[in-house]
Automatic annotation (TrEMBL):
<protein>
    <recommendedName>
        <fullName>Methylenetetrahydrofolate reductase</fullName>
        <ecNumber>1.5.1.54</ecNumber>
    </recommendedName>
</protein>
<dbReference type="GO" id="GO:0035999">
    <property type="term" value="P:tetrahydrofolate interconversion"/>
</dbReference>
<dbReference type="InterPro" id="IPR029041">
    <property type="entry name" value="FAD-linked_oxidoreductase-like"/>
</dbReference>
<keyword id="KW-0486">Methionine biosynthesis</keyword>
<keyword id="KW-0028">Amino-acid biosynthesis</keyword>
<dbReference type="InterPro" id="IPR003171">
    <property type="entry name" value="Mehydrof_redctse-like"/>
</dbReference>
<dbReference type="GO" id="GO:0071949">
    <property type="term" value="F:FAD binding"/>
</dbReference>
<dbReference type="InterPro" id="IPR004620">
    <property type="entry name" value="MTHF_reductase_bac"/>
</dbReference>
<dbReference type="Pfam" id="PF02219">
    <property type="entry name" value="MTHFR"/>
</dbReference>
<comment type="similarity">
    <text>Belongs to the methylenetetrahydrofolate reductase family.</text>
</comment>
<keyword id="KW-0285">Flavoprotein</keyword>
<dbReference type="GO" id="GO:0005829">
    <property type="term" value="C:cytosol"/>
</dbReference>
<keyword id="KW-0560">Oxidoreductase</keyword>
<dbReference type="GO" id="GO:0009086">
    <property type="term" value="P:methionine biosynthetic process"/>
</dbReference>
<keyword id="KW-0520">NAD</keyword>
<dbReference type="GO" id="GO:0106312">
    <property type="term" value="F:methylenetetrahydrofolate reductase (NADH) activity"/>
</dbReference>
<keyword id="KW-0274">FAD</keyword>
Length: 318
């Protein structure tokens, strides 16, 4: 079922969902199941599965030279989506990226999703590779998420790449896109970034999931500004519980988001990672309670593969 239908059918009740990352290449899917199992009692209507783009690795050839190879550390997004969908009878949302894929490769991923009965996809640009300063699209790939949304919409209309005749076998994907309450790090202003978000919605995006944020006022202001900009699709808040002390530096550095002073000082007082994890849980519970009271459509949690903290949060709320 489409995410937008899940939201409609909930009749104003806030839903619980979460995002997982595929295991590292060579690991077992059972580890993933072990982390999903405890969250199923909260009846998530959908689970997102991220996609990681390819990276360069340098292999020592033993003669003083390095060999540059390309690798994908966490492949298998669509396979994992299919496995989870059929094991738990839950909708899954594969993340589809512009970066690292040609349009043809993207089309094959989408065709696979269609065959597997996956009704929702999250359309994202992806980031630059670690050695790059800026995002560079693949030759023959999509540049911005808007272009990817357009490609998915083409499939929804039966228009496949290079096909002379339109197919009668149309896809019917519900499309999610990313939104940034504190603006995307490359955007020159929040207003410009909102204009870009509007372009994604005008191209066919059905809902938005936000980047993590720790100050609900930023989310509320973002939703208001989005409405004023003519964006009328559901905007789902993304919530990340702080789990290790290093997040105090890492999250602002990677995602250009601010952390509230109260949270910083509570985390700084912690002596162990277990204490930090507990502070993260308690903060996320308070944050979620306020969002719940405001009637957000879904509370969407970034689990990063470990679910004990998400379970602790959900058990207070759902
Ligand atoms: P876009 O919407 O294309 O925007 C990227 C930047 O370009 C923005 O600054 C925007 O303002 C600007 N822009 C857009 N259109 C134009 C235009 N026409 N001209 C000029 N500028 C323009 N990354 C992964 O690698 N894998 C994942 O699974 C993943 N999942 C995510 C899930 C969520 C909910 C979120 C919020 C992010 C996720 N990301 C993921 C990270 C995401 O790929 C990065 O934030 C990326 O840098 C931007 O992606 P986007 O889809 O928002 O890009």
């Amino acid at each position: 079922m489409k995410i937008t239908d899940h939201i409609k059918n909930a009749n104003g009740k806030t839903l619980f969902s979460f995002e997982i990352i595929p295991p590292k290449k060579g690991n077992n899917i059972q580890d993933l199941y072990n982390n999903i199992d405890p969250l199923m009692e909260f009846k998530p209507p959908f689970i997102d599965v991220t996609t990681s783009r390819e990276e360069y690795v340098y292999i020592d050839k033993g003669n003083g030279l390095l060999d540059r190879k390309i690798t994908r550390m966490r492949p298998g997004t669509v396979g994992i989506c299919a496995a989870i969908k059929h094991k738990y009878d839950v909708d899954t949302v594969p993340h589809v990226l512009c970066g690292g894929f040609t349009k043809e490769e993207t089309e094959y991923v989408l065709v696979d999703c269609h065959y597997l009965g996956i009704d929702n996809v999250m359309a994202l640009r992806g980031d630059a590779m670690s050695h790059q300063k800026y995002f560079i699209p693949n030759e023959g790939g999509n540049h911005y998420a808007t272009d990817l949304v357009k490609q998915i919409q083409d499939l929804n209309c039966g228009k496949y790449l290079h096909d002379v005749i339109e197919s009668t076998n149309k896809a019917d994907f519900c499309i999610g896109v990313a939104g940034y309450p504190e603006k995307h790090l490359e955007a020159p202003s929040l207003q410009t970034d909102l204009k870009r978000l509007k372009e994604k919605v005008d191209a066919g995006a059905d809902y938005v999931v936000t980047q993590m944020f720790f100050d609900n006022n930023k989310y509320f202001a973002f939703v208001d500004a989005a409405k004023k900009a003519g964006i009328n699709v559901p905007i789902i808040p993304g919530i990340k519980p702080i789990a290790v002390k290093r997040h105090l530096q890492l999250l602002p550095q990677v995602f250009r988001i601010d952390l509230p002073e109260t949270l910083i000082s509570e985390v700084e007082k912690c002596k162990t990672n277990k204490e930090v994890r507990q502070v993260g849980i308690e903060f996320a519970i308070q944050q979620s309670k306020e969002l719940l009271a405001a009637g957000v459509p879904v509370l969407h949690y970034y689990s990063m593969g470990k679910s004990d903290n998400i379970q602790a949060i959900a058990s207070e709320l759902f």
